[in-house]
Amino acid sequence: MSNKADKLKLLKFVKDFLLASRLLQLLQPFNRVFGFIYNFNLLTSWVHKHKSEKLLTNDFYRPVRNYDDRLKSFDAIAAHYKLNEIPVSYLEFGVASGGSFKWWMNTCRNPESRFYGFDTFEGLPESWGVFTKGDMSAAIPEINDNRGMFIKGIFQDTLNDFLQEYGSSLKGKQKLIHMDADLFSATLFALSQLYPYLEKGDIIMFDEFNVYGHEFMAFRYFTECFYVNLKLISAQNNFYHAAFEVV
Length: 247
Ligand SMILES: C[S@@+](CC[C@H](N)C(=O)[O-])C[C@H]1O[C@@H](n2cnc3c(N)ncnc32)[C@H](O)[C@@H]1O
Description:
It is a single chain. The chain is an alpha/beta fold. It has two domains: 40 residues, no CATH class; 196 residues, 3-Layer(aba) Sandwich (Rossmann fold), CATH 3.40.50. Helix content is 39%, strand content 17%. It has seven helices and eight strands, in the order ααβαβαββαβαβαββ. Strands 1-7-8-6-5-2-3-4 form an eight-stranded mixed beta sheet, sandwiched between helices. Helix 5 packs parallel to helix 6 and helix 6 packs parallel to helix 7. It is globular, with a radius of gyration of 21 Å.
């Protein structure tokens, strides 16, 4: 019997034994700890691979974070890609009261630019860290600019219909995708649906990138499962915010 066949036989035996005996269930109380160690180490390795890259912004390592410093990254991206001049399609996943949505709308001044904001506007659909379901609910923001629109509901219900209607208009235009839904589920779902519309040069920003079990995990699964190559272009607040270009 070949070496490979022997290995397979052994693997099958061990797996079936573990399934039947439930031996590893003895370690179940430690699942969270093991999960944390495994996933946090993946994040740590990723950060240390990229920490010294010359980017549009990169403040690693800083001892104290300042959330508002994400604007430094926004500013640098807008200037580098001339987003205030060219027509852009801005898609924001997680709008809440519209802080970042309005910032981008005020910055990207081209009359052909379009802004799409997706949110339940009833808060998080599931808990996220110390936040519980329903936290972050906000009224649909008031905007005085007919280039923008909001799509209310969970992405899982709204995004496909939106893409059926507007997907073709996204092609060939600079896309700026802002993932700010915090959750693994929401982030991975949105990225997966957007995959057929992604083009070289599109920008994807993550607002909570270094949260190991949420946006970072969604980023990993997305890039690994869809074979998408994303080039890091900006990092702020120790990679809490990170932006990428599709290459
Ligand atoms: C951190 S807030 C967005 C903040 C906003 N971008 C800003 O910077 O001002 C996250 C938002 O994501 C929304 N969200 C999370 N998962 C969602 C989902 N599956 N569908 C729709 N909205 C979702 C929540 O309702 C919440 O308002």
